[in-house]
Design a protein that fits this description.
This protein is mostly helical. It contains 1 helix and no strands.
């Protein structure tokens, strides 16, 4: 008689049920572990996305502030240049009338700080 038939049927069925129960429990544990890992990965992904969005907003704000500062600096430069041109015009007039044409200032860009 084959070895597996030497035991009664109910013992074999009980052993089969125990094996299936163990496999089911192992499968549940594996699924729970996978769910935890997926949740961790999703949370990490969300944190990275938030950080990237925050960085993008920060860069946009910095770029806007830089642009505004450049516009203000350009306006200051234009105002200073206008006053310099007026002063240079007066110096030019004085030099021509007094014969000091070589002493005219050469226009240069003023500092914008």
């Amino acid at each position: 008689m084959p070895k597996f038939l030497q035991r009664p049927f109910h013992e074999r069925m009980a052993e089969t049920r125990r094996r299936r129960a163990v496999k089911d429990i192992e499968k549940e544990m594996k699924d729970e572990k996978k769910a935890k890992e997926d949740a961790r990965k999703q949370a990490l992904k969300e944190r990275r996305e938030k950080a990237a969005e925050k960085e993008l907003l920060s860069e946009a704000a910095t770029a806007a502030e830089t642009e505004r500062a450049e516009v203000e600096a350009e306006k200051r430069y234009e105002e200073e240049w206008r006053s310099f041109v007026v002063a240079d015009g007066m110096a030019s007039f004085c030099a021509k009338t007094t014969g000091l044409a070589g002493l005219l200032l050469i226009p240069r860009r003023l500092s914008t700080r």
